[in-house]
Amino acid sequence: VNLYKEILALAHHLFERSGRIEGRDHDNWIEAERIVRTLRKIAGDDGRRYILVNVPETGYALKKRNENGV
Question: pTM for the complete prediction?
Answer without folding.
Answer: 0.63
